[in-house]
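lol so apparently i was supposed to do this last week
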Amino acid sequence: MNFDVDSIRNDFPILKQTTKSGKPLVYFDNAATAQKPQCVIDAIVKFYSEDNANIHRGVYELSDRTTTAYENARQVLKNFVKASDEYEAVFTSGATEALNIVAQCWGADNLKAGDEILLSEMEHHANIVPWQFIAKQTGAVVRAIKITPSGELDIDDFSTKLSEKTKIVSVAHASNVLGTINDIESIAKQAKSVGAKVSIDAAQSSPHMLEDLSSELYDFVSLSSHKCFAPTGSGVLYAKREILNSMRPWKFGGDMIENVAWAGTSFRSAPERFEAGTPNIESNIVFAQACKYLMSLDIEAVEKHEQELLALLSSQLSEIEGLRIFGTSKNKVSVVSFAVDGVHPNDISVMLNNYGIATRTGHHCAEPLMNTLGVSGTCRASLAFYNTIEEVEFFVKSLKRILNILR
Ligand code: PMP
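anyway here it is w/ 4'-deoxy-4'-aminopyridoxal-5'-phosphate bound
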């Protein structure tokens, strides 16, 4: 299969628009949320035009059809990460909710005073704050693996901090700021050597379809729909069925119960155990449609294209005087954060908008990382496979013009 970026772009109607600046939209904010292909948009319309009903328990044709589509979607999502039969896919509202379930439902019964939760300095708030909260409740301690100057995990620091006290290691597969792809397999192997559980935040790696996440070394893997070219409001927590069934539920109501009586209630096994109430049926079903779309692409060609864009962007940016790139690891997804001496990153993003270019500025929900980097925020260009070489060149040209005005 070949990778033809023009035909890929045809799949994404939003990319065809002209912005108020009169310039075509250059969408470089994919790490915040990715655009949706026509097949995903069609699947949303089809759902509400043909299939909408509440799932489970309905005895009529429409509900039956929706229930089947919903459970099929779960299977597609398992195939997407090549999860083995031992694993279950729990639908959540996003990666944040998935990580909260791990921290709360696993942490509450498995952490005690003196235990350690090992994160890293490059984590998103979604993989920090839930752990701080459960640490406060249980008396466990949160520790963070340091990063090296190039924005990689400091493996020596990891080895030093990892001990018998470590009960869980929870790290990002790919950083939403630095772009660094962490060697999660080797991290997981080391974590297992001290008997710690392993949780992987795959929110930023799954859109780039890195290697599969099927290793049995990972106890928990969290994914986000909207980063994966699907609608917002959905996510998945993959975990071994056995672990999930040993965890307490976290929200209570319909669908997650086995029997309810005034004397007490019993709960269903995973995945329903963690899916109380009416879920986001449409988004979960359409998430699977997006994954099917991704799986239909030539993954190697996609990766090659993204890496070409990343290499061009990084080399052209590094030629700009006073510009500093945060995250220069060899192993990166196509995310480039930078700052320019004497220029506020927000001014850069605001002025890029005048050229039709969408980027993001700020702490990117990674304030502790900003402290480590010694900045209050960065400007971030995050690319997807539908971006082009021409867009990268236009971005750099526009940035140079802006910097001539601002400096
Ligand atoms: N982890 C990382 C690394 C992220 O980039 C994000 C989203 N910015 C999240 C978790 C949270 O994902 P969601 O928006 O699905 O809650």
